[in-house]
Amino acid sequence: MKKLNSSSSDVVIAGNNGNGNAANQFNGPMGIYIDVNNGSIIYVVDSSNHRVQRWVIGGTTGVTVAGGNSNGTALNQLNSPRAVISDSNGNLYVSDTNNHRIVMWTSGATVGILIAGTSGVQGSTATTLKYPNGITFDANKNLYVADSNNFRIQKYIVCASTTTTTIATTTTVTAVPPCTPQSRSSGTLFSVTNPTSSTYPIYTCYAYTWVATGSSATLSFFFRHDPGGWMLDDVKVYRGLTQLITNGGFETGDLTGWTYSGSCNYYTGSAYSGSSYAKSGSYYYYDRCAYGGDTISQTFSTVAGDIYVISFWLTNYSCCSATEIANVTII
Ligand SMILES: [Ca+2]
Q1: Which residues form a coiled coil (predicted)?
Q2: What is the CA 308 to chain-centroid distance, rounded?
């Protein structure tokens, strides 16, 4: 372990005594974490020694504070851990990677407490993990786990009592949208007026995270295009792994599940057949509403405070000499 000193050259603060399992050595150190209560203490995940070492920065030896009993699935053991964090109560949380679990070690404990995953069992359900790696807390002490081989981030609500802190329930497994989501706090997800180029046949992916504020929300797509048209497909809203939008791929061939409103002098928006035009499947929503504007929307139940992941694919067909507007809102 090294850190920079004031002259910008590095200094060794732990280890540097070759590869081994003595108290002054490491074997495959991975995650490191500065104690949240004491900036002179560093925790080092000594991965290939299946232990977590506590070092006073600059000290000559470390003390094992988790694991150190060879690799295994017992609660006094770890198996190739990768990450450690501490909380203000002095508890350590260890990403016990090859045991597919997160364990908590209280100060001075000789065994850990299983708080997420299932010991030694890999899986992709809400109660299993597959090679977890990085872990962190948010300001409300919710625990986030990078569930590496499941390609997902898990969130666990922490329930604090007066004497100890335990993880009670798994609440959110977040679906991964088809493109990197942007965070939105207001009701407008996407808005464009008079685009300068036509992108058809390439669809663009749009994805957003949004926190519900009430018991329901309405996702709306307003389009105007005179002439030419907007093409929309694969609309999804996820709460955890539950998809909430009905007929987001328009594969019923009509607007089942959607509410239509607005007026157009020409061509109202409708589900169109044509697999070569659709982003996926056989149908897509094609809106050529000219000299007016129309909206399709869908309302679904929400839980205030929960995160929703919204995604859709959009392109425009022929432009750019007249008024062309797309507005996507969630209210
Ligand atoms: Ca489709």
Answers
A1: none
A2: 11
Going from the Cα of 233 to the center of ligand 1, the distance in angstroms, rounded, reads 5
pLDDT by residue (tens digit) across 171-205?
445 678 899 889 898 899 999 999 999 999 999 99
Q: Both tokens of residue 129?
A: 């993990």
- Closest to 239 in 3D by CA, of 309, 181, 143: 309
Domain ranges of the chain: 2-173, 182-330
Close Cβ partners of 135 (under 8 Å, ≥ 6 residues apart): 83, 85, 93, 95, 102, 143, 144, 145, 146
How far apart are the CA of 235 and the centre of ligand 1, in A? 9
Q: How many CB atoms lie within 10 A of CB 325?
A: 17
Rounded CA separation 238/245 (Å): 8
What is the model's pLDDT at position 162?
Answer: 35
Rounded distance from Cα 251 to ligand 1 centre (Å): 6
Task: State which CATH number among 3.90.660.10, 3.40.50.2000, 2.120.10.30, 1.20.1300.10 fits the domain covering 2-173.
Answer: 2.120.10.30
Ligand 1 centroid–CA 257 distance in Å is 14
Residue 228 CA to ligand 1 centre (angstroms):
20
DSSP β-bridge partners for residue 160: 165
> How many A from CA of 298 to the centre of ligand 1?
17
Residue range 256-277: mean pLDDT, rounded: 96
